Amino acid sequence: MGSDVIQAKLVLLGDLGAGKTSIVESTIGAAFFSQVLCMDEATVKLDIWDTAGQERYHSLAPMYYRGAAAAVVVYDISSTDSYIRARKWVDELQRQGNPHLVMALVGNKVDLEEKRHVGTQEAMEYAERNGLFFIETSAKTSQNVTELFYELGKHHCDLSTETTFNYSLPDKLVKVRPHRPSGMVLHDGRCRRADSGGWAWRFCCSG
Ligand SMILES: Nc1nc2c(ncn2[C@@H]2O[C@H](COP(=O)(O)OP(=O)(O)OP(=O)(O)O)[C@@H](O)[C@H]2O)c(=O)[nH]1
């Protein structure tokens, strides 16, 4: 295991009952939520903030996503309404969130395949058009739940292996457009970026 420790705040968003809390509980068995991933290259610590899906709490959400490096937007594959709501979250994050926020779209409850109302292809194409990482999970059977967090963690590590300076704990993980030239110097030299398979990530360190 690498000696680097990489820390990033991740926020969970999605409709009431989509399965946000269950996804996290099925991996780490608690409701707040620090997921430590011990990878070959580094230890990645994701501070995960769960949010309530009820509409009346909507106005609180910006408090959570504004400081986040990554957002995981969850819908229930058996509920078209929850998918519509997820897309609204994506719109809101694109309009009002950190412009470089990393977003993952998660179709949960794949164990309910016979009740599926949201097609994989439809959601995948939507995710691709919007630059989101996409995965389908089941918190009930744990299918793909670890993969979701490891996929996020892996990108952190890809970056850390290219670290060329000693940094304190990163306070932001942001996505940048893949077409930017690599090796770009960002934020007065305290940030850098790395590309990995079409996903480009950079850490901004508090310095
Ligand atoms: N079959 C099935 N049920 C699930 C799955 N994930 C969650 N559930 C159930 O869906 C219901 C809602 O799950 P929660 O995790 O509380 O959903 P949430 O998104 O956190 O809901 P709010 O906190 O109210 O916004 C619960 O009854 C869960 O047991 C899943 O993958 N499959």
From TrEMBL:
<keyword id="KW-0547">Nucleotide-binding</keyword>
<dbReference type="GO" id="GO:0005525">
    <property type="term" value="F:GTP binding"/>
</dbReference>
<protein>
    <submittedName>
        <fullName>Uncharacterized protein</fullName>
    </submittedName>
</protein>
<dbReference type="InterPro" id="IPR027417">
    <property type="entry name" value="P-loop_NTPase"/>
</dbReference>
<dbReference type="Pfam" id="PF00071">
    <property type="entry name" value="Ras"/>
</dbReference>
<dbReference type="InterPro" id="IPR005225">
    <property type="entry name" value="Small_GTP-bd"/>
</dbReference>
<dbReference type="InterPro" id="IPR001806">
    <property type="entry name" value="Small_GTPase"/>
</dbReference>
<dbReference type="GO" id="GO:0003924">
    <property type="term" value="F:GTPase activity"/>
</dbReference>
